[in-house]
Amino acid sequence: MITVITGVGDGIAGPAAIALAQRGHRLVLVGRTPEKVAAVADRAAGFGPRPEVLTCDFTHLDRVRKLAAELRARHGRIDVLVNNAGVMTTARTLTSDGHETMFQVNHLAPFLLTTLLLDRLADGRVVTTTSRAAKSGRLDLGDLDRERRRWSGWLQYGDTKQANALFTVELARRGVAATCFHPGLIKTGFAPGTLMMRLIHHVPGMGRSPEEGAATMIHLADGPDGVEHAGRYFVDRAPAAAPRSMTDPDLARRLWDVTAAAV
């Protein structure tokens, strides 16, 4: 199986890569920092062929297009695409493409990458890392960059994670074996400096290890649930209830159209 994982660095993608290598997946690892991606590839190489390593900064959509072109040139098919790259920041910043950074990195870029690879994924599956923060999402399709609404980093993050869930719903409607999942509160360098992450790192029992967080990603990338429950949201390797804001097929279709226009 040829498996592409984005967002490879210090988080859950590393343990997932090693576990999938042990299960016979041929890996393509994508991340922003070459040294971090290479370190994961080195560890995974102990269990099979050394993974391919590619770098991409999702704050530049042209680089996402270049990544898709490189993947297309190398592989006639892709069995699994894991959309794991993500960011959370309390400051409102814009990318060079003019989009709010979290919305571009967390939603626009994986949307663009996935849609550019859809023919390669014809018989494959797409797994997207979302969050239970999606339940707080209140997407405004006319203001996805939160330019006119009150700024809050966590509210915007919730919007982007809601978008991940809706993207999964619409991908499934279009015939793709797509699922998404909440990995839990993970002790990584994600969202540095926020009160939430300080609590996760310092309050006993509050946070999970990256290995624990990777379990559902591995389950969906390698097991039958990743195909048999297309369109579903998973927690702890099982389908979980989600509010209408994460599952509404009409909202999912409209978000797809708005996103396609944005990229």
Briefly say what this structure is.
This protein is of the alpha/beta class and 263 residues long. It contains ten helices and eight strands.
Notable characteristics:
globular; Rossmann fold; alpha/beta; 263 residues
Question: What is the topology?
Answer:
Blueprint: E1 2-5, H1 13-22, E2 26-31, H2 34-44, E3 52-55, H3 61-74, E4 80-83, H4 101-116, E5 125-129, H5 153-173, E6 177-182, H6 195-202, H7 210-222, H8 225-228, E7 233-235, E8 238-239, H9 244-247, H10 249-262
Parallel strand pairs: 1-2, 1-4, 2-3, 4-5, 5-6, 6-7
Antiparallel strand pairs: 7-8
CATH top level? Alpha Beta
The order of strands across the largest sheet is 3-2-1-4-5-6-7-8
Number of alpha- plus pi-helical segments: 10
- Helix content estimate: 40-55%
- Name given to the CATH homologous superfamily: NAD(P)-binding Rossmann-like Domain
What letter string, H or E per element, gives the SSE order? EHEHEHEHEHEHHHEEHH
Examine the secondary-structure arrangement and name the CATH architecture: 3-Layer(aba) Sandwich
Which structural class matches the secondary elements? Answer: alpha/beta
The largest pleated sheet is described as: 8 strands, mixed
Mean pLDDT: 93
What is the percentage of strand-forming residues? 5-15%
Tell how many strands the DSSP assignment holds.
8
Net shape:
globular
Gap between N and C termini, in Å?
A: 29 Å
